[in-house]
Amino acid sequence: MAIRIVLIAALCAAGLSLQACGKTEDGASQRTAGKIEGAVGDLTGNEKLQREGKQDEVVGGVKETVQDAKEAIGAATK
User: Fold this and answer.
1) Domain containing 45: what range?
2) b/e per residue 20-34 (b: at least 16 CB within 10 A)
3) Minimal CA–CA distance to 56: which of 74, 71, 40, 36?
4) Dihedral of the CA atoms 64, 66, 72, 78 (nearest 10)?
5) Distance CA 29, CA 16 (A)
């Protein structure tokens, strides 16, 4: 039980530090924040956090794909 509490605290701290730095704008950071949120949801049994975490993972992945496509187009047009 103590290990779960420590893990939850560590994951929460990591998620809060990402948000505090404003680093959830790009896809990779949002995807990471989603994984953290989902993990906290898994550890606590909170289904809402699990859903929100999964949603952030998916949205972050889409943002990454769009950014990669923009970079590829930019490189191809130079």
Assistant:
1) 2-76
2) eeeebeebebbbbbb
3) 36
4) -120
5) 12
Name the domain count of the chain. 1
**For residues 56-67, b (16+ Cβ closer than 10 Å) or e, as one string?**
bbeebeebbeee
Positive or negative, the CA dihedral 32, 36, 37, 42 is positive
Tokens standing for residue 33: 């924040």
Per-residue pLDDT of the chain (78 residues; tens, 9 = 90+): 666 666 667 766 766 666 555 555 688 888 998 999 999 899 889 999 999 999 999 999 999 999 999 999 988 887
Joined together, the tokens standing for residue 57 give: 């993972």
Distance between CA atoms of 76 and 31, rounded to whole angstroms? 27
Q: What is the pTM of this model?
A: 0.67
